[in-house]
Specification:
ACT-like_dom_sf; chorismate mutase activity; alpha/beta; Bifunctional chorismate mutase/prephenate dehydratase; Alpha-Beta Plaits; 365 residues; prephenate dehydratase activity; 15 strands
């Protein structure tokens, strides 16, 4: 068989497979509609139907990746199935998700990675506004950054948990790649100002010191805002990601300029619904301890004794008094697990205050 004949046969096979894929996706979408009807019909008076189940979505993605035999890698397969689930869920009820805007930020990218493109995303001007939108019921969920692998904790997010009674429903880990972007009118040999968010400037500090040591660095509210400004200035550049580059029509003068190649940001999904155990969960808590010698040892000892893996611990000033602090702790396990439940009961007895922020599925990728 000639090469031309082989190509023709392969294209015929691809067309046939595409038709089967479409038929199966449509069948899945009809099942999603049936799920919505069953849930609605089984409601008791005063109950609200819950269409989005984080634990179910996490299980589906993990199951699909376990079945995956290639040639597409797990990340790509998970992305494809996330979009299918997002579109099917939109047939039941389109989710509304608030995030730290404007459009084109890494928070926006985290929304799309976790929920898919079929959600109705709502950009907010500040992290606290995201919390308020969720608390008021104006949106179903919010997405907020909580820590970066290079620069550490996002304090505005931690402080917002002290002020709002919301539940952490999930987490997203996003690999952060920064690019130096310029506009159509930028004179690249005359750049005298570089815009970006303060965190991004910090994450690219060494690169900037080596390549643009004498250029002014201007911190703005977001990387997307930086990209907007560059559109109308001939002597400036912006540090931002792929979404901002595409959204605002900018060119990458230099790619992947972050100081650490593994630079990642972790985001939290905040909402009002508790998430049942999945068997692969994390829990976040806030603890306020009495100010006395050995306090930190008392706090950590129950976790060590019971073999519970702590994944993060941060301190923030308490709102209750001068030189008093609260501890933010993430650990492996669900607060309904018997072992974890026992540890939390012990901490509650020894602490001034203990608040479970939520238990949620670990980030899939």
């Amino acid at each position: 068989m000639s090469d031309v004949d082989q190509l023709k046969a392969l294209r015929v096979r691809i067309d046939s497979l595409d038709e089967k894929i479409l038929e199966l996706i449509s069948e899945r979408a009809r099942c999603a509609q049936d799920v919505a009807r069953v849930k609605t019909a089984s409601l008791q008076p005063g109950e609200e139907v819950v269409f989005y189940r984080p634990e179910r979505e996490a299980w589906v993605l993990k199951h699909i990746m376990e079945l995956n035999k290639g040639p597409l890698d797990n990340e790509e397969v998970a992305r494809l199935f996330r979009e299918i689930m997002s579109s099917c869920l939109a047939l039941e009820q389109p989710l509304q998700v608030a995030y730290l805007g404007p459009e084109g930020t890494f928070s926006h990218a985290a929304v799309l990675k976790h929920f898919g493109a079929a959600v109705k995303s709502k950009p907010m001007a500040a992290i606290d506004e995201v919390f308020r939108e969720v608390a008021a019921g104006a949106v179903n969920f919010g997405v907020v950054p909580v820590e970066n692998s290079t620069e550490g904790a996002i304090n505005h997010t931690l402080d917002s948990f002290l002020e709002h009674d919301l539940v952490i429903c999930g987490e997203v880990e996003l690999r952060i790649h920064h690019h130096l972007l310029v506009g159509e009118t930028t004179k690249t040999d005359k750049i005298s100002r570089i815009y970006s968010h303060a965190q991004s400037l910090a994450q690219c500090r060494k690169w900037l010191d080596a390549h643009y040591p004498n250029v002014e660095r201007v911190a703005v509210s977001s990387n997307a805002e930086a990209a907007k400004r560059v559109k109308s200035e001939w002597n400036s550049a912006a540090i931002a990601g792929d979404m901002a580059s595409t959204l605002y029509g900018l060119t990458k003068l230099h790619e992947k300029i972050e100081d650490r190649p593994d630079n990642s940001t972790r985001f939290l999904i905040i909402g009002n619904q508790e998430v049942p155990p999945t068997g692969d969960d994390k829990t976040s808590i806030i603890v306020s301890m009495r100010n006395k010698p050995g306090t930190l040892h008392e706090l950590l000892l129950p976790f060590h004794t019971n073999g519970i893996d702590l994944t993060r611990i941060e301190t923030r000033p308490s709102r209750s008094g001068k030189w008093t602090y609260v501890f933010f702790i993430d650990f492996v396990g669900h607060h309904k697990d018997p072992l974890v439940k026992g540890v939390l009961e012990k901490l509650a007895d020894e602490s001034v205050a203990l608040k479970v922020l939520g238990s949620y599925p670990k980030a899939v990728l």
